[in-house]
Amino acid sequence: MILERIHKENDIKKLNKKDLQILAEEIREFLIEKISVTGGHLASNLGVVELTMAMHLAFDLPKDKIIWDVGHQAYTHKVLTGRKAGFDDLRKYGGMSGFPKRKESECDAFDTGHSSTSISAGLGYVEAREILGEDHHVISVIGDGSLTGGMAYEALNNAAHLKSNFIIVLNDNTMSISPNVGGMSKYLDSIRTAQTYTDLKRGVEHALRKVPVAGESIVEHIRKTKSGIKQLFVPGMFFEDMGITYLGPVDGHNIGELYRAFQEAKKLDNAVLLHVLTKKGKGYLPAEIEPSKFHGTGPFEIATGQALAKKDGDTYTDVFGKVLCDIGANDTNVVAITAAMKDGTGLSEFAKRYKKRFFDVGIAEEHGVTFAAGLAAGGLKPVFAVYSSFLQRGYDQMIHDVALQNLPVVFAIDRAGIVGNDGETHQGIFDLSYLSSIPNMTVISPKNKWEMADMVRYAVDFESPIAIRYPRGKAYTGLKEYRKSIQFRQSETIYEEDEIAIFSIGHMMEIAEKVRRKLKEMGYDCSLINGRFVKPIDEEILVRMAKDHKLFVTIEENVLSGGYGEKVREFVMRQDLPVNVLTIGIPDEYVEHGNIDILRKEIMLDEDSIVKQIVTQYIGLTR
Ligand SMILES: Cc1ncc(C[n+]2csc(CCOP(=O)(O)OP(=O)(O)O)c2C)c(N)n1
């Protein structure tokens, strides 16, 4: 095995041409085998095997800096930099991250997870190099999907002025997670078509020249008539006109061609964009056929590509998608927006059924929010379905464009709370804080499947900005007997006793209910309240419960700072209510990757840890 000869960075440089071809195949087999067991990002990684190898041949790591956009496609880079063994524990707690991590390897130049940051970070590296008088190359690798993010253009705009080398690799596979969207995608497509045309033309020229006597003059005639169509023959004019040298397009699966292109790119004293054409899922048929399905996958059977885990029950995302489709059938003013996450946010069916009322804006969350504000101002009812961590991008837009004008935009915030294997960058643990600091914003969260459905209906009818936050995974089917309609600002009392009152939010109600059961078994009386509204909180229930409870406990899967618990505590203190408050949530730190249950234990958000904290506090109070 050639792969066995790769132990660390630059080992690849010892291989000959033939070995390199074999290595590419071996890396593919390795990735398929490992990811079929652990799950992870497959299709994007299979697409960049040769590209990564060529970069490792052309550059010198860790001296040169490779910055991966999103970072989900850095698996071959990890293989080539001494991290093969890490794939057994890929994305597991304590194991190797699925993204580049500076603390994991000095060959990882920049931490990522969210898209469209690589050109900005790379440009920062370039300017630092110039000021510090260092000598190394900086290469940012960005996908065509990530190039739909506004930040990438802000960075290109700045990079255009550079007087020193900066290499931007555009890895164009025509796909985001779903097929890519928008004008830039069309433009790149036109370059690809022009390339095919150029190849075709070369072939025709070659054949014509062979025609006796007239051949040469026919070729010249054709040349003259076509020469005016500059755009067709000089691809990449958009970048060239900006001041960024365009090279390409290059076959992203041809190591020799890529290597030569990098040598050319290195010679330039300015920003250069190397356009590389790759195939997402390359070399594994199920992933080539369904790249979206294999963008991020759980464990699967290699022979068939079938997922190993069987689906059991509806997820919150499924419920959202179904209810929104139902609403959309009767209310033609309802429109749905996604930022490149149609499948992940459950909007695929809506997109199919109501084509004209569905918008994929690309990986452009900031634009998505303001676009929604415009739709609302124009008289429609926009629902922006978006992952909690990605909506962080749209904070100013939520304040400035939506809430300030009190526009009725619905934010359907998926993947809230701990998401697990994707780690720090993807945990949705800040939304309750960042949302509830915005005036005019209402924030709600469902305890189970049925409340999820009710809340989606409630939100669409709401006349101001409103956010529903819910987690990934199966929707809780417990507590179904409590299906009282949603009333503004009102919580829902599930058990009313005395001593301890537990107030919980959203999916943490499932754990809160178990905690209460345990406390009862231990002999404590305990009320359980489903908060429903994080903003505004139900103040009446706090006043009422303070009369016969000694301790309020709040439970939420959000950072404590600015979360639900702090709001409860603040109200209790402001009103001088005669009750103590224990807030349970996520401490002031980032939560790494791993299994959700393990992570909850680590941050003391699991049932046992919560019970312990409550009992300790309560005993302290009553001693
Ligand atoms: C801000 C942000 N929004 C959404 C995502 C989710 N996401 C991860 S990869 C991806 C598609 C990226 O497409 P591209 O850059 O072309 O890379 P490819 O996977 O096709 O290689 C998306 C939408 C993200 N990581 N960051």
Mean pLDDT: 94
Q: State the separation between the terminal residues, measured CA to CA.
A: 68 Å
Q: Tell me the radius of gyration.
A: 28 Å
Shape: globular
Low-confidence stretches: 226-232
Q: Kindly estimate the percentage of residues that lie in beta strands according to DSSP.
A: 15-25%
Distinct compounds present: thiamine diphosphate
Structural class: alpha/beta
**How would you characterize the largest beta sheet?**
7 strands, mixed
* Portion in helices: 40-55%
What features would you describe in this structure?
With 623 residues, the protein is an alpha/beta fold. Helix content is 41%, strand content 15%. A seven-stranded mixed sheet has the order 7-6-8-9-11-10-15, sandwiched between helices. It has a five-stranded parallel sheet with strand order 1-2-3-5-4, with helices on both faces. Strands 12-14-13-16-17 form a five-stranded mixed sheet, sandwiched between helices. Helix 3 crosses helix 11 (255-266), helix 15 runs parallel beside helix 17 and helix 20 packs across helix 24 (607-622). The longest helix is centred in the first third of the chain and has 27 residues, at 183-209.
Secondary structure topology:
Layout: H1 17-38, H2 43-47, H3 49-58, E1 65-68, H4 75-80, H5 118-132, E2 138-143, H6 150-159, E3 166-172, H7 183-209, H8 215-226, H9 230-233, H10 237-242, E4 245-251, H11 255-266, E5 271-277, H12 285-289, H13 316-330, E6 334-338, H14 348-353, E7 358-360, H15 365-377, E8 381-387, H16 388-391, H17 395-403, E9 410-414, H18 431-436, E10 442-444, H19 449-461, E11 466-469, E12 492-495, E13 499-504, H20 508-521, E14 526-530, E15 533-535, H21 539-546, E16 549-559, H22 564-575, E17 580-586, H23 596-602, H24 607-622
Helix pairs in contact: 3-11, 5-6, 13-19, 15-17, 20-24
The protein binds thiamine diphosphate.
Thiamine diphosphate is lined by residues 44, 47, 69-70, 72-73, 114-115, 143-146, 171, 173, 175-177, 280, 295, 339-341, 363, 365, 390, 393.
